[in-house]
Amino acid sequence: VAQIEGLVAKPREGDCIDLTAGKAAADIFLNFRPAPGQLAFWVEGVTNPALHGPINCLPYVPSEAYALPGIPEGTYRLHAATWEAPAGASASKPSTPADLAQGGPFTVLERSQLCFQVRRFEDFVASYEWQPVERWHRVPVGLEINLDLGGSGGAGGRKARIPQPWTWDARIAGEVAPRRVHVEAETTVGELLKRAGLQEDAHEVIFAAGGFERILESAWTAKQADLFRYAKQVESDESDSRRGLLDKLQEAQLLS
């Protein structure tokens, strides 16, 4: 009897399935590779052995995805086997895993098993140092990814960090197109304004989200301001003192 992972195309060994926020269980979609014989598959809990499903029997290996609904958070082992019924009992089907064990009444042509996990995914918190990337991380665009063949990283030895430099599409108030600015970890907010072609004493960088606003100090570094993470929530505008001066000049012109 062949014992390969190839009978199950998806999920793969060690895969994580996202448990969507607000839901208590996930729907798992299984894909199988073509194989002769009838198909049986079932799921059993690893972290919680009390969780186990019935044996699902199909007259053939399906070419389309098969859905297993309502799988709660946890680690599971998926078993799959192709089989033939005993002579003279073509209508019989396995009802327990023991029926497909060696020496059982059914002839097993091929079997495979793998583990997968259902859990809520988390945003990967990037830094300028290498951090392991796990299978349940949502990785933001623009990171430098390294595959550590030594396996000291996260899933598959993957690590990620913010590259140096990285490119910030700086939004400027009143301008349609952003200005592209190269950023390093220790680049100050004041230096970023200069790189954007703005005067440090006449402009400021503002973080705005959900009605909250804060001016970033010109001495802060990109690392201190966590600029990579909040890049899309930050824009540059004229400072209050600069706007006040322009208002006075405009008023003086109107009066003259």
Features:
256 residues; mainly beta
Structure explained in plain terms:
The protein has helices spanning 189-195, 222-225, 227-230, 240-255, and strands spanning 2-3, 8-10, 16-18, 25-32, 38-45, 56-58, 66-72, 74-84, 107-119, 122-123, 131-132, 137-138, 144-147, 158-161, 166-172, 179-183, 203-209, 212-216, 234-238. It is built from four helices and 19 strands.
Overall strand count: 19
Using only C-alpha atoms, the radius of gyration works out to 29 Å
Question: Mind describing the biggest β-sheet?
Answer: 6 strands, mixed
Shape: elongated
N-to-C SSE series? EEEEEEEEEEEEEEEEHEEHHEH
What structural class is derived from the secondary structure elements?
Answer: mainly beta
Summarize the structure.
With 256 residues, this protein is mostly beta strands. The chain is built from four helices and 19 strands.
Please write out the topology.
Blueprint: E1 2-3, E2 8-10, E3 16-18, E4 25-32, E5 38-45, E6 56-58, E7 66-72, E8 74-84, E9 107-119, E10 122-123, E11 131-132, E12 137-138, E13 144-147, E14 158-161, E15 166-172, E16 179-183, H1 189-195, E17 203-209, E18 212-216, H2 222-225, H3 227-230, E19 234-238, H4 240-255
